[in-house]
Amino acid sequence: MTAALPLLDVRNLTVEFATRRGIVTAVEQISIAVAKGETLGIVGESGSGKSVTSYAVMRILDRAGKIANGTVSFSGIDIRGMKEDEVRDLRGREMSMIFQNPRAALNPIRKVGKQIEDVLIRHVQAAPSDAREKAIEILRQVRIARPEERYHAYPFELSGGMCQRIVIALALACRPQLLIADEPTTGLDVTTQKAVMDLVVELTRERGMSTILITHDLGLAATYCDRVVVMEKGKVVETADSAIIFKSPLHPYTQKLMRATPRPNATLRGLLPEGEALPNPIPAPPANDDAAMLLKVENLVKEYPRQGATTSVFSLFKPKAPAADATFRAVDGISFEVRRGESVGLVGESGCGKSTTSMMVMRLLDPTSGRILFNGEDIGGTKAKDFAGLPQRRRIQMVFQDPTDSLNPRFTAVRAIADPLLRMGGLKGGAAIRARCEELARRVGLPVDLLDRFPHQLSGGQKARVGIARAIALDPELVILDEPTAALDVSVQAVVLNLLQDLKVSLGMSYLFVSHDLYVVRMLCDRVIVMKSGRIVEEGPTERVLAAPEAEYTRELLSAIPHPPV
Amino acid sequence: MSVAATPAPAQASAAVATLKHARYIIGENPVTGVAFGIFVLLALAALIGPFIVPFDPLASDTAAALNSPSAKHWFGTDQLGRDIFSRVVVATRLDLGIAIFSVALVFALGGLSGVAAGYFGGWTDRVVGRLADTIMAFPLFVLAMGIVAALGNTVTNIVIATAIINFPLYARVARAEANIRRDAGFVQAARLCGNSEMRILLGHILPNIMPIMMVQMSLTMGYAILNAAGLSFIGLGVRPPTPEWGIMVAEGAAFIVSGEWWIAFFPGVTLMLAVFCFNLLGDGLRDIVDPQRRT
User: Fold this and answer.
1) Does domain A293-306+324-560 sit in CATH 3.40.50.300?
2) Residue of chain B whose alpha carbon sits nearest to that of A455
3) What part of A 442-471 touches B (C-beta under 8 Å)?
């Protein structure tokens, strides 16, 4: 904090929202200053008010929200008192924002080059005659290969990382002084995240810009920020240089967050706050040498027709039949096995085929070829839509990635948990089913009085518990966990991961854990399989793979994960 | 352990919660309250109308023909001396009945086939889609006239004709709503729970698209009333002397030029209010049935 006058000075800011239940204070009396050229991280879990703060700074709060108190000044100008058209002029030219979902932030039916031109022309940075040249120059600056071609691309033709680069290009087009990045890399792969963040840091440094990085990821904040503000429930609890805050966090909340963040050398129990650490240590998993084989996958292949190569009556009118290479192999002949009582991690970036593999094992998707042996029986032969009728259905269950999406919004929690019991449980009578649901709820740590609530009345962690209770309701032998904590806050993730581990030990289940986060996999899994482009690139005991990765790709993945200094 | 959700008491009975929610919706949106008030009046007229009207709706009294509205005959009398107020009230049952039955029929036919088309895709989708396109290819009112003329001039056939011309609206809305949910997480979870495809369709997807179908039903109620009255107006379907709003407007139309405006005016206004009421109710109804709006 060397600069005398900060670029952005927020003092005693209070933001209120008018809701049905009266006024809700989202942000209370916070003060934040950003110096010129500084990168400030705002860290907090969902509901901490970190995004609302940035909306208030940009004056883009929705209609129900208003700044109730405090001042926001940007290089000495009071933003709170400005007229709407003056603020509009400031946005984009002096301060810009990058949003979480890059695809949603771009106009889907306009060429990306044109979208950059629009911003340039709106803020009088270019005339219609030279806008095209400048747009291509900007694309080049955000490291888009072949910018002249990509100028004509539509957002859907670009990958998520490329779209985020376009959004960054839009945000930086008019050389603003302040960039607000609101979870800019959530939903991107770790390697893409690294590329995008490196780019943001490089561009802002080189232009002397200030950046506010809003994130839930302490590792990301530690790696890229000069100073970090930790927020909890609308209040700032700690502000310090990032080098200091991660070495010696002062506030209990910061300490709790630090503990809960997966990092090298962490243990599952170590993620929990000290007071809550469960007394019994996890018993070591049973020796697997002669354990029975539970799942054996042999040469599994899934092919999809390439774009346009659809088969229908209308293909009769097409000039010729699709060529031989009209198929795309999402999963390209993989083989692996899961033993009884074992946890196997399936790791890779989006598009590597890990979800397709898990869907095929789960028998929600039909493989093109290959065998799936479960307890020695080939279950891959039965069509996915007929599998619901087989006795094996109850032996293989799944916990989904998004706890909200995977619960029927019109079913109460108890109805959701009872669904498998009603279909396959063989229990008779409402009382018996209710009793079993309550037992399951206790098992997953869901308060029984929440059972009659609808999903939208539950928090993310509670919804995750409902999903887990549903998956274990029939005492399955194999549970596939498809990034079960990806949508959760770190402190909730810590609790859920511990719960999953305890359940595995007490119920004797096997897990196939699908994830992109190697550190989470490390804590939960005995073995890990690394996938890339539909193939297995590395497989082995977790400790060995993480400590001494053999494949180049595994090393790349490991180095891309940001983590706070240990 | 985890973040606490809304502090609403979970034990509060669902009925009380629904009532409270309905009161909140009406309080937020007084227009819905007005529409609901009209609906209650219409429902009362349909249920007990024939027992409370001051005159027999079919009894003619040539001595009192073409009387203008008065304390005795609130809405006046027609060319045969029948009391228009009594006829308008009694007609409610028939008009609402046609609308309700045709909407129920089209919901069963169009809604279910639309959901199936959106969920299964493939041939089901093509058959339902082309059927809807075929119906849409005709001017709908002319199609309804054709159906009633071909099937015979009865109330049942008006119900069928009204249902058929509304089919594409239901099928398309249901198809679109089911289609976006066919691969939702909760549908896949339902498959893992051992639900058959039919059970997923009816037990998981259909309840989720009910809010939007309720809105659709309320909107088409108004349209169905209008359609039934329109068919009667041109002489199809209900026959005189049965009291029916469309026929009454048709009969009264000839007298407007000679100054007896009330014969067509009152049934016309009632018809308008009924259609208006169902259209407004649609919006309010969606807020009441959608649990997402209930916090």
Assistant:
1) yes
2) B292
3) 445, 449-450, 452-454, 456-462, 465, 467, 470-471
Residues of chain A neighbouring B194 (CB-CB closer than 8 A): 388-389, 393-394, 420, 423-424
pLDDT (tens digit, 9 = 90+) per residue, B258-284? Answer: 888 888 888 899 999 998 888 888 877
| A 327-386 residues inside an 8 A Cβ radius of B | 362, 364, 385
Strand A510-515 versus strand A343-347 pairing type: parallel
CA-based nearest distance B201→chain A, Å: 12
Size of interface A-B (CB pairs under 8 A): 109
Report if residue B7 sits inside a domain: no
Whether B8 and chain A come into contact, CB under 8 Å, resolves to yes
CATH homologous superfamily, domain A1-94+177-261: P-loop containing nucleotide triphosphate hydrolases (3.40.50.300)
User: Which chain A residue's Cα is nearest to B192?
Assistant: A397
pLDDT at B292: 57
Domain boundaries, chain A: 1-94+177-261, 103-175, 293-306+324-560
Instruction: Retrieve residue A240's tokens.
Output: 């310090």
B173 band by pLDDT with thresholds 50, 70 and 90: very high
User: The complex's ipTM?
Assistant: 0.76
Give one word for A75, left, alpha or beta, with left for phi > 0 and alpha for psi -120 to 50: left
What residues of B are in contact with residue A465 (Cβ under 8 Å)? 2
- Matching CATH topology for A1-94+177-261 and A293-306+324-560? yes
Is the Cβ pair B195, A492 closer than 8 Å?
A: no
State residue B153's pLDDT score.
85
Strand pairing class (A535-541; A527-532): antiparallel
Name the nearest CA neighbour of A36 among A65, A9, A64, A70: A9
How does strand A95-98 pair with strand A210-215?
Answer: unpaired
Say whether A470 and B189 touch across the interface (CB within 8 A): yes
Distance from CA of A149 to the nearest CA of B (A): 33
Neighbours of A292 (CB within 10 A): 10
Per the structure, the complete domain to which residue B138 belongs is given by: 14-66+74-293
Span of A432-441, B117-126, B236-245 with lowest mean pLDDT: B236-245
| A505 near B CB under 8 A | no
Pick the range with the lowest mean pLDDT from A382-396, B95-109, B201-215.
Answer: A382-396
CATH number at residue B79: 1.10.3720.10
Average pLDDT of chain A, as a whole number:
83
Cβ atoms < 10 Å from Cβ of A23: 11
From CA A334, how far away is CA A372, in angstroms rounded? Answer: 11
* Residue B221 lies inside a defined structural domain of this protein: yes
- Report the alpha-carbon distance of residue A302 to residue B75 in Å, rounded: 74
Query: Does residue B4 lie in a domain region?
Result: no
According to the model, what pLDDT value does residue A92 have? 78
pLDDT tens-digit map of A486-508? 778 888 888 888 888 888 888 88
Q: Of A408, A433, A485, A488, which to mutate for an interface test with B (greatest number of B Cβ within 10 Å)?
A: A408
Would you state the pLDDT for residue B171?
A: 93
Instruction: Collect all residues of chain B within an 8 Å Cβ-Cβ radius of residue A489.
Output: 3
Reduced to 3 states (helix: H, G, I; strand: E, B; else coil), residue A185 is coil
Q: B6 lies in a domain?
A: no
- Residue A304's DSSP bridge partners are A328
Is residue A489 within 8 angstroms of chain B, CB to CB?
yes
> Contact A407/B184, CB-based, under 8 Å?
no
> What residues contact residue A509 under an 8 Å CB cut-off, 6+ apart?
A341, A472, A476, A477, A478, A479, A503
Asked if B197 is an interface residue toward chain A (Cβ–Cβ < 8 A), one would say yes
Picking from A82-86, B10-14, B166-170, B226-230, which range would have the lowest pLDDT averaged per residue?
A: B10-14
Residue B289: closest CA among chain A residues belongs to which residue?
A410
A215: which 2 tokens?
């994130």
Q: Considering its fold, how many domains does chain B have in total?
A: 1
